[in-house]
Each structure stands twice: as structure tokens, then as C-alpha cells.
Specification:
alpha+beta; six-stranded mixed beta sheet; two-stranded antiparallel sheet
Length: 211
């Protein structure tokens, strides 16, 4: 049954629980209570029991119940790296298959790259990151033939980066998502970093880099 708003203190002199009060306060939230038609009738007929103070207390009690039972505060959710004190070991990526071995099934992707020196470099780097993100997002929906095709396209992207003087490194690490109403669970994260081929940071060990 739908509820309807009722006045706790009537605005009419002969109404239930009437007392003088400013007209501007009659229809305010403080003086209103939501009742079904049947309860509305009972409340207005039994004014010696349903006094102004009694109705206000009933209203406060119900609002507290709603706050605690209907809309409980959900514990905050956080994502934590259990190995935050350890460096991330990046491996050089030379093929689309190697790239998807890192990306497939991850729930987050961290990317980094050197500052582009031209619009062509910006376009090439941007295209690579966009296509890797798109491939990761649709990977689970692709058939085996789609996996092979996606790896081929990404292989072409990596080849074009090599020709432009860049190399790609990547890694994946399991973070943990915890809090909320569910048990903690793994949150796999992928890391992709583009370096220039002549970057001093990778010359000493061209197949592995820590960050």
C-alpha cells in the first residue's frame, strides 16, 4: 500500500495535535511523516496515544533503522600490490604472441613511453597503445582464429615501432583487490613500457629491465 504524507502537528485549529506554529513550518520535513492510509486514520483518531512527541520518536527510530538496515555503509575497496617493495622485472617483447601472453586476462594496464619528438612518433606510440588496449579488452570474446589474427596485427605494430627506433618491454603482476563485501581476490595488472633503442637504461641488458 502506498504511503502518504501526514502532518504531525495539524495546521487546522481543530485538527489532530494542533498547536500554534509558524505557517512556514507546517509543510517542512520536520513536521511530516509518511503513513499508509490505514495508519494515517488511526494516528489521527488516537491523538492521546500518538502525540507529537510519540510520532517524532517513531519517525527518528524508523529513519535510524533505514540507515542501518537498508543502506549499510559498504567497506571501501582497495587494490594492493603485495610485492610493492620489489622491482617489476620487464621483459623485452618482440612478437604479438609474447605481448598477449602478458596482456590476456589482466584487469588493468599501466603504460609508459618516452616523450615523442614528432607528430609521427606520437601517432605511432598512440596507435600501439590503443591497439594493445583494444586487443586486451576483447581477448576473452575471440575465437582461436581471432587470437591468431590479433597477435599478427600486434606483431605488425611492434615491427613498426622497431623501424621507428623503439623497443617494447612488459610484465604482469598480481595485485590484490580487497574490502567491500567479497573475499580478497587476485587483480592481474599488465605493465607496458616503450623505450628508445639507444636508451642508456636498456643497453646493459637489452632483454630485461626493472622498474
Amino acid at each position: 500500500m502506498l504511503g502518504e504524507e501526514a502532518h504531525i502537528v495539524s495546521e487546522e485549529p481543530n485538527g489532530p495535535r494542533f498547536r500554534p506554529m509558524p505557517k512556514s513550518e507546517v509543510d517542512t520535513y520536520t513536521n511530516l511523516i509518511l503513513l499508509c492510509p490505514a495508519d494515517h486514520k488511526i494516528v489521527d483518531e488516537q491523538i492521546n496515544y500518538y502525540t507529537e512527541q510519540h510520532l517524532l520518536e517513531l519517525k527518528r527510530t524508523h529513519e535510524q533503522w533505514v540507515k542501518e538496515k537498508i543502506s549499510p555503509a559498504t567497506p571501501a575497496i582497495k587494490i594492493r600490490d603485495p610485492e610493492a617493495d620489489k622491482p617489476i622485472m620487464l621483459q623485452r617483447i618482440d612478437t604479438g604472441k609474447e605481448l598477449m601472453n602478458i596482456l590476456a586476462g589482466t584487469l588493468a594496464l599501466h603504460q609508459n613511453n618516452p616523450e615523442p619528438r614528432s607528430s609521427e612518433e606520437a601517432g605511432r606510440i598512440g596507435s600501439f597503445f590503443q591497439n594493445t588496449t583494444d586487443s586486451r579488452d576483447v581477448w576473452d570474446d575471440l575465437e582461436p582464429s581471432g587470437h591468431i589474427q590479433a597477435e599478427f596485427w600486434l606483431n605488425e605494430e611492434i615491427t613498426q615501432l622497431h623501424k621507428a627506433g623503439f623497443v617494447v618491454y612488459g610484465a604482469r603482476r598480481n595485485h590484490i583487490v580487497e574490502g567491500g563485501v567479497k573475499d580478497p581476490k587476485p587483480w592481474p595488472v599488465a605493465y607496458l613500457v616503450i623505450y628508445r633503442s639507444d636508451d642508456e637504461d636498456i643497453k646493459g641488458n637489452p632483454t630485461e629491465k626493472s622498474v
